[in-house]
Each structure stands twice: as C-alpha cells, then as structure tokens.
Design goal:
There is one protein chain. This protein has 127 residues and is mostly beta strands. It starts with a helix and ends in a 12-residue tail after the last strand.
Length: 127
C-alpha cells in the first residue's frame, strides 16, 4: 500500500449528497466520507470493484456557480455495511476531474467535511 495515499486527510461528510451514474442516470449512493483524493459512498447495492464510473453530483448554490459537477472515479473496495446488513460501503478514488470541478470538490471537503476520529488503519480508499 502506498504510504503517501494513506496520509490523505479524510473527513466524514455531513451533507446528504447523492452521487449519480452520469451514463445511466441511476443513483450509485450517498457521500458518507470525503478526502482530497476520493470518497466513500453508502449504497443500496454492491458496487463492482476496480471499475471506472462517470459520476455526477448536484452542487448546492453555496458551493459553486454551476448546478452539478461530473468526473470519473474508480471503485477501490466495497463491503457490506457492518451496522446495516442491507447496505454497502464503497470507496472511490478520483481518476479524472476538471480543474473547476476539483475546486468545487475542495470546497465541499472544507464546508461539509467534519473531522473524524478514525483509527489509523481505517484507510477506506486503498485497501
């Protein structure tokens, strides 16, 4: 595991934000944790691992001047939620994002991310 990747600042996500599959228009899940290089989703279905997704997130007015952002992210892991055995948690790594959308993502991280007291072994992006 790349130690540099484990040092990414992670925060719990305090805003209920949907993540959609841009190609199908279907809901993939809701943001539950965010870092500067990726995020974790809570999902009602298992997410295939090591798959690239074209994703869309609607952007609240206070975060950006546009209504949505689109980007490509790769699923890195997926597991049954330990507290809710009918939901899944999935970690994603951002693969391709425009500079403008990356700026919006950074504002989301700052505004809605809350510091999480997680153990150092809780590296959800690159297991």
């Amino acid at each position: 595991m790349d130690k540099e990747r484990r040092r990414l600042n992670r925060r719990r996500f305090s805003y209920y934000m949907r993540v959609m599959n841009e190609r199908s228009g279907r809901l993939i899940g809701h943001l539950s944790d965010i870092s500067t290089g990726g995020f974790r989703l809570d999902s009602q279905q298992a997410v295939p691992v090591n798959t690239d997704y074209a994703l869309r997130i609607d952007v609240p007015d206070e975060i950006g001047s546009k209504n949505f952002m689109m980007f490509v992210a790769r699923s890195r892991w997926c597991q049954l939620d330990p507290l809710d055995n009918v939901s899944y948690n999935a970690g994603f790594q951002i693969v391709n994002m425009s500079p403008g959308d990356l700026e919006i993502f950074g504002r989301m991280f700052e505004k809605y991310g809350t510091d999480a007291n997680k153990p150092a072994t809780a590296d959800y992006l690159w297991r």
